[in-house]
Specification:
282 residues, alpha+beta, Rossmann fold, six-stranded mixed sheet, 5 helices, disordered N terminus
Length: 282
């Protein structure tokens, strides 16, 4: 998509320039950028046996709207697609060899399609060749449980003879909870909570001075940058999945393909995130 600009005027101190008829090209679509935690969950040691899990939903439980100091904002502060993000993270964990994820969010559509196939085959006198739907041993439950706006704010600025600038920043915090529930007993086997900060920063500069008698120069420049909220949620979910894997190995719920790596796996996580998880398996 190209946006036709009627005119682009750039003004600086003592410099004035205009260009007309320029075209601004938007960047091409890209795959989701990796977070600081992506490499950790993608390169974890392989499990002895893949874990069968089901994800029904991973909702936004905060009820928070986007922070806005000027008017009421009705858009949600965090993504409503937490379930899709969690499934994507699970499918990439350990190169896709840690979890076997079964479809549950669209279970109605899956059952309807299977019923259509079975009815069609039956009408032509054929036996249904569909295998049984795979079931899961664990449910992964939880959600986005917190969003705190303006957890940290600040800034600095200075002007001299009408020329200067300022910097302002703000930090929000998103909190994610993830727990593993046994399908057979309903017992919560492991639970973890993670937080991720979302930073926003704005930089402005300007000049306001008389360049000649009766001639006033006024220039304002600025730029702001906001961390993507969906990537912050993804990073929190990735760390939660990583933490859940470590806790499961510690409790003996599942094992690594190479059992000799298990203590190192637990200790590395404990030292990195300074958790209270014991360094040895129980």
């Amino acid at each position: 998509m190209k946006l036709q600009l009627a005119a682009i005027c750039l003004m600086g101190l003592g410099i004035v320039g205009c260009q007309s008829g320029q075209q601004l090209e938007t960047p091409a679509a890209t795959l989701t950028a990796p977070t600081k935690t992506s490499a950790k969950v993608e390169n974890v040691p392989l499990p002895a046996v893949p874990v069968d899990v089901a994800v029904y939903d991973f909702p936004d439980l905060t009820g928070q709207a986007k922070p806005n100091e000027n008017f009421a904002e009705y858009s949600r502060a965090v993504t409503q697609g937490g379930g899709a993000i969690l499934i994507d993270v699970l499918k990439k964990t350990g190169g896709g060899q840690w979890f076997r994820v079964v479809e549950r969010g669209g279970l109605k559509n899956l059952v309807q399609e299977r019923t259509l196939i079975e009815n069609t085959q039956r009408s032509f006198g054929r036996a249904s060749g569909l295998p049984a739907v795979r079931f899961a041993g664990l449910l992964l439950e939880g959600g986005i449980i917190g969003y705190d706006s303006n957890e940290l704010t600040g800034g600095a600025g200075a002007k001299y003879l009408g020329i200067g600038g300022d910097v302002q920043y703000r930090s929000d915090v998103v909190t994610v909870n993830l727990r593993a529930v046994s399908v057979q007993t309903g017992e919560i086997l492991a639970s973890t909570t993670t937080t991720k900060q979302i930073y926003s920063i704005g930089v402005r500069g300007g000049a306001y001075k008389f360049v000649k008698v009766g001639e006033l120069l006024e220039v304002e420049l600025g730029q702001s940058r906001n961390d993507p909220g969906s990537l912050a949620v993804r990073e929190g979910i990735e760390l939660a999945v990583y933490s859940l894997m470590v806790d499961g190995v510690r409790q003996g719920l599942w094992h690594l393909k190479d059992p000799s790596q298990e203590n190192a796996f637990i200790n590395t996580f404990r030292q990195k995130y300074k958790t209270s998880i014991s360094g040895n398996k129980t």
